[in-house]
Amino acid sequence: MQEKKLAIIATKGSLDWAYPPFILASTASALGYDTEIFFTFYGLQLLRKKLALEVTPLGNPGMPMPMGMDKWFPVALTALPFMQALMTSMMKKKMASKGIASLEELRELCQEAEVRLIACQMTVDLFDMNPADFIDGIEYAGAARFFEFAGESDICLYI
Amino acid sequence: MADFDQELDASGLNCPLPILRAKKSLAGLSVGQVLHIIATDPGSVKDFEAFAKQTGNELMESKEEGGKFHFLIKKA
User: Fold this and answer.
1) Which site among B13, B23, B68, B73 would you substitute to test the A interface, given the most A Cβ atoms closer than 10 Å to its Cβ?
2) What's the gap between Cα A156 and its chain centre?
3) What is the model's pTM?
4) What ipTM was reported for this prediction?
C-alpha cells in the first residue's frame, strides 16, 4: 500500500480545540499516514513547551456544563472572570477521569511518530513570540511550505 | 482465546490511546507474532477493525468478556 498523506492546519488555541489536530495526527501516523500539521495564529499556543490552554463556556451553547447549567445558567454570567478557570479545571478533571490523554502526551506521541510540526513564521513575528518558548523539533515556515505537502496530500483538514 | 506472544492492557484508556499503544507494541514484535489487547473503550471495537484493515495486520479475534474487550492482532 502506498503511503497516504494527511495535512492539517491547526488554527485554534483553546484546550478543547487542541485535541482534534493531535488525536487525528497521531492516529493517522499509527495507520501509516505521512502527516504534517501547520500551526497558524492561535494554533501556535499548541507548540509551547508549557501548555496553558483553557476552555471557555462563553458564546458556546453546545458546551455541556455541570448540573445542567447549560440549560438554566444565564449566558451573560458565563463571562464572569472565574468561569473560564472553573470550566478549564473541570474539563481537565473530567478528561483525566475518562482516560483521555493529556495534550502533552498526545503531542509527544505525534513527535515520536515523526509527525512534522510546522510553526507559521508570520504568526511568530506578528505576536512577537519567542521560539525559545516552543518545543524542540519543529520547523518554521510559510504558506508555500504548507502547500508543498498539502498539494500532494490525500486528506487536508482545517481545524 | 488462542495463544499470543505479548499482552497489552489498555483498560481505562480512551481514544486514540489503545490504538497508539497497540501500534507501539506491534512495532516490537516479529512478523507472525500475536498481540493480545485488552481495552474498556467501547469505541475500540470498530477502531481495531479499522486499524487492521488499514495497516494490513490481521485481527484474528475480537470479543467482549467480563465487561472488557479483547483483541488478537497478528503482525503482518
Assistant:
1) B23
2) 16
3) 0.91
4) 0.87
